[in-house]
Amino acid sequence: MSIQSERNYTNELILNYLDLWPEFQYKSLEDSRSLRYYVLLMNLIDNQLDAGIRWLDSDDARDYFFAEAEYQREVFQSLENEWDEILESKYPSVEALLSEVYRRGKAQGYSDMQEHIKYTEADKQALRFITEYNVGLIQRIDNDVRTQIKYKLVKGAIAGEHPYSLAPQILSIAEEQLADSIFTPRHRATMIARTEISRTQNTGILQSYVNEGYTEVKILTAEDDNVCATCLYYAYHFDRGAELTYANRNGEKVHNIKKLLDGGNFPPFHPLCRCTYLSVWESKNSSGEKLDVVNLTIDHSKYIEELLNNGFHKYTPKGRPHGVYIKRITGDSQEFRESLLKSKSTNSNRDKWRVDVHDATDYDDCELFITDHGSTIAIKPNGDIISVCASQHPKDSGEALLRYAVAKGGTKLDSYDGNYKFYRKCGFEPVSYCEFDEEFAPDEWVKGVNKPEHIIFFKYTGNQSEYETKHDFYDVVEVSEGESDLSAYDVAEKVRDDSL
């Protein structure tokens, strides 16, 4: 097939994706203006393809991956000599670089075990997982960019802009913020490069352990104060209720490799993760069992299929970009409480003290729901929503979680006023409040560190309150105070309930 034929075929695919064929179906191409527009559009698409091809084949494209490889070199000092050799070499493609990183990571795994390197069919399969996964990420970037290109082209066509005048706008898309994201396509490409270099290296290391019959590993963090709560949770033991910081860690956790992979939580735990593995010498199995393929990529279609098979379903609030996979576990109060504690641990110290964790028996008469990431909501028989906690690592949408609670019968809740803006945004209006009482403060609230926050009682109306801030509310509504045998909390609750 000639280059021009390939271009024509590619142009047709792009026009199909951009839904632009109707533009040409009702206008005759014999019309000079339509024909000229068509030619200009084809030239514009060709120019973009040429620019993309040139960039992918440029030193700049490979520099992204070399830059992130150098970042990893700083983190994993034990690979310093290997990274020097990697960075001094030339590679024809990103895939070739990933293959070399995988090979070096595998060699590092064997160096740790003081064994001779072995290449097996499992290695080939593991590397195939990596290369296919990276291609998928590149396609996802492409789809994000395509969406913006489509917007630019359609908007320009409606406005009657000359196609040539659109070219500079389209070229600037790589630097524009993606929809529903804080990243530009260039930022996202850089983040993916950094994370996938880590994933590729870790795949090689873990495959080498499996090849030699090791069954257990430890998680090696970057061992500094920047290690996140998720990485700390999987790497170390902590005293019950202790803040998840590197300084507070106890002994290292030991993970069975198969259970680690089956559970789906392994390095890299999140974008830009710096964790890797160390083998547990005592776990070596010399039985000669068949080698496993180590797949550290996430097959999203398979993951979603497993969620659906396990009772989860997707819920996305109408008109909102983010949803959650959630399921009902009413009757299993202990599982709910454990999930709540885990989800709470992923939140910052600034916020987690506001999450109220009850005894398991207190949830026996509640409707209980958890997400695939461990986020929780509980609904009492009277419609009171309690124990709302959105996981931050991996992150769930708190708004989707709360709106789901409303859809399942939740009508009211109370919360410390630090959450005021969030609940107002979700359609809960404040009705009454009581002052913060240090005697009943949560155990994790620290005087002098955390500010005292009043407790506000909300009801769901679906509307945003006329009080834009909690201070506006306090300026108008009188604080509830205790009466005879009722505490201030009970009085404020009654005032809210009477308004329903």
Your description of this structure?
With 500 residues, this protein is of the alpha+beta class. The protein folds into four domains: 3-56, no CATH class; 60-283, no CATH class; 299-396, no CATH class; 411-500, no CATH class. The protein has 18 helices and eleven strands. The chain has helices at 3-18, 22-25, 32-56, 59-75, 80-88, 94-113, 121-159, 163-171, 185-211, 229-235, 257-263, 300-309, 333-345, 349-352, 398-407, 420-425, 470-476, 488-498, and strands at 216-220, 255-256, 276-279, 313-315, 324-328, 367-371, 376-379, 385-389, 412-416, 428-434, 455-460. Strands 4-5-6-7-8 form a five-stranded antiparallel β-sheet, with helices on both faces. A three-stranded antiparallel β-sheet has the order 2-1-3. Strands 9-11-10 form a three-stranded antiparallel β-sheet. Helix 6 (94-113) runs parallel beside helix 9 and helix 7 (121-159) packs across helix 8 (163-171). The radius of gyration is 28 Å and the shape is elongated. Mean pLDDT is 75; it is low at 24-29, 71-80 and 160-164.
Concise structural overview:
It is built from 18 helices and eleven strands. The protein is an alpha+beta fold.
Topology:
Elements: H1 3-18, H2 22-25, H3 32-56, H4 59-75, H5 80-88, H6 94-113, H7 121-159, H8 163-171, H9 185-211, E1 216-220, H10 229-235, E2 255-256, H11 257-263, E3 276-279, H12 300-309, E4 313-315, E5 324-328, H13 333-345, H14 349-352, E6 367-371, E7 376-379, E8 385-389, H15 398-407, E9 412-416, H16 420-425, E10 428-434, E11 455-460, H17 470-476, H18 488-498
Antiparallel strand pairs: 1-2, 1-3, 4-5, 5-6, 6-7, 7-8, 9-11, 10-11
